[in-house]
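Below is a filled-in request sheet from our internal design queue. Each sheet records the structural input a requester submitted and the sequence that came back. We keep these sheets so that new team members can see what a complete request looks like end to end.

REQUESTER: design group, bay 2
PRIORITY: normal
MODE: inverse folding
CHAIN LENGTH: 445
BACKBONE (tokenized):
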């Protein structure tokens, strides 16, 4: 007898929820996306993605057309599904600790909806939550409001995601691992079965552990990557003191050691984005609340906070003063292939430069609308890199976009008032730029 494929519902049509729903549907798993924002749901019905993510639009359109994905603001729709994934946001409070208010309200609404359902139902916590949240916060709310018990007629697992912006669909389709924090055998085997159907012939390793361990895996993963970035930025800062040293060569050499590995060793303006800073702060706060100060992660954050200041120092060494100087900022997004400027080093650099009297013209192929919302007319915006460079006293390269990589030394010479270039991402060849006043992160002069 052929077994029925499970139906899934996903609560929270933000970045993770949308990518999860679209990829499930792309593999034939019927998915219902739930969100309180009617406009977002309408967009999904039109097969339009409210966020920028390569391939998401295509997957969403096909899934909606094939009726494998639909959206609703009505949470009672989860009763028509077998598993509910919780993918609501977990923002930071002002002290850096995690704000679980969306997790709490979503858990309550899920529980109330499940009160009306017959039969077993599994809830899967995919949101990034500090250890103990699944069992200590979600579980009691769910059990109370649904009048169900975990292990009897309610399943509950923690199942963190590791999607990176710009490659989220690829990451969801080809993960290096699936981590399941199990509470009860039934929900775990239900989730494993779902992932077996999803990944078919290419099964990623599935690691089962306690919900608390699974929750910590997510933080440990991000803390390690962020620490790797701050580590190489520290080596870059030392390299700058030594004539003839290039941190790129150091990274290449140490990356050959399989114990270190080559990835996340690109020196630059410091990490940005919605996860690293937020998750490190949550982890530091969690440690402190439990009587342990994680000094290593404090240092990771400190190095990262200092990195924009080092870019300013480089520009200052070229210009002397910023008053009334025109500076071209090349790239605003926190990394290439996204329109996201959350925690972007570019914004920190712009803030300091404008405070010191500089006039900014910024170029970015995608992130200008988001930057306009934040900075409005505090800076000028250019439609091409060349327009940003026109008449500039200094150019600061902030994001490694392919469009910006293509710029040649002669473009800077042709358009700028004075060809002073700070390459925070190290994307240009110093030999080609030797006739310009060129300084890059991690090059000893
Ligand atoms: C990250 C994690 O990679 C992902 O697994 C998690 O689920 C969410 O957080 P994301 O924030 O999208 O993903 O971006 P990522 O590609 O990891 O880059 C983070 C920041 O580090 C970017 O600002 C990037 O430019 C910077 N970075 C990355 C470096 O400066 N050097 C590197 O070598 C790698």
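RETURNED SEQUENCE:
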């Amino acid at each position: 007898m052929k077994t029925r494929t499970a139906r899934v519902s996903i609560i929270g049509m933000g970045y993770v929820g949308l990518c999860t729903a679209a990829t499930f549907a792309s593999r034939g798993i019927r998915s219902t996306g739930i969100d309180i924002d009617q406009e977002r749901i309408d967009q999904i019905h039109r097969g339009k993605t409210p966020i920028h993510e390569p391939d998401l639009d295509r997957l969403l359109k096909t899934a909606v057309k094939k009726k494998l994905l639909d959206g609703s603001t009505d949470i009672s729709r989860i009763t028509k599904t077998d598993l509910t994934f919780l993918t609501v946001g977990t923002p930071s409070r002002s002290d850096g600790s995690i704000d679980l208010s969306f997790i709490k309200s979503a858990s309550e609404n899920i529980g109330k909806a499940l009160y009306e359902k017959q039969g077993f139902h599994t809830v899967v916590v995919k949101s990034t939550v500090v250890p103990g949240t699944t069992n200590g916060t979600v579980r009691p709310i769910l059990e109370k409001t649904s009048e169900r018990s975990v292990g009897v007629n309610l399943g509950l697992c923690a199942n963190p995601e590791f999607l990176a912006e710009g490659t989220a669909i690829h990451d969801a389709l080809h993960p290096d691992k699936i981590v399941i924090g199990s509470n009860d055998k039934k929900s775990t085997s239900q989730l494993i079965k779902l992932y077996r159907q999803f990944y078919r012939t290419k099964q990623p390793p599935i690691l089962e552990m306690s919900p608390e361990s699974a929750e910590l895996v997510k933080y440990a993963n991000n803390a390690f990557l962020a620490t790797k970035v701050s580590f190489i930025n520290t080596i870059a800062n030392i390299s700058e003191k030594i004539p003839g040293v290039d941190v790129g060569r150091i990274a290449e050499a140490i990356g050959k050691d399989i114990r270190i590995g080559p990835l996340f060793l690109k020196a630059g303006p410091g990490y940005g984005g919605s996860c690293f800073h937020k998750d490190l702060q949550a982890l530091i706060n969690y440690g402190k609340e439990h009587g342990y100060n994680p000094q290593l992660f404090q240092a990771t954050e400190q190095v990262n906070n200092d990195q924009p200041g080092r870019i300013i120092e480089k520009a200052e060494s070229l210009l002397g003063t910023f008053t009334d100087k025109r500076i071209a900022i090349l790239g605003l997004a926190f990394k290439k292939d996204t329109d996201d400027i959350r925690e972007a080093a570019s914004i920190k650099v712009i803030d300091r430069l404008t405070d010191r009297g500089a006039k900014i013209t910024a170029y970015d192929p995608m992130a200008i609308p988001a930057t306009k919302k934040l900075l409005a007319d505090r800076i000028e915006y250019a439609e091409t890199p060349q327009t940003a460079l026109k008449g500039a006293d200094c150019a600061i390269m902030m994001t490694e976009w392919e469009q910006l990589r293509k710029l040649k030394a002669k473009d800077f010479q042709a358009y700028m008032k004075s060809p002073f270039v700070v390459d925070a991402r190290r994307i240009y060849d110093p030999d080609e730029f030797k006739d310009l006043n060129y300084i890059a992160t991690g090059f000893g002069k």
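SHEET NOTES:
- Residues 162-165, 222, 225, 229, 264-266, 268, 271-273, 275-276, 334-335 surround uridine-5'-diphosphate-xylopyranose (CB under 6 Å).
- The longest strand covers residues 121-125.
FILED BY: M.R.
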